[in-house]
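Re: that backbone. Tokens:
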């Protein structure tokens, strides 16, 4: 996939999120929280992030 192409799966996920009423901020918060959880888990396991 070229850098300037949209990933069809991500587009589908974002469309579905909007259809169920999630706001852009809620979607962003979800991914931010998941990233923070992964970093915390890695730190607990002694991995560098």
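Recovered sequence:
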């Amino acid at each position: 996939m070229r850098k300037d192409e949209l990933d069809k799966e991500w587009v589908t996920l974002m469309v579905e999120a909007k259809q169920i009423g999630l706001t852009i901020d809620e979607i962003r918060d979800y991914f931010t929280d998941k990233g923070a959880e992964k970093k915390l888990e890695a730190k607990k396991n002694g991995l560098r992030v």
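The two ends are 27 Å apart (CA to CA). The chain has a mean pLDDT of 83.
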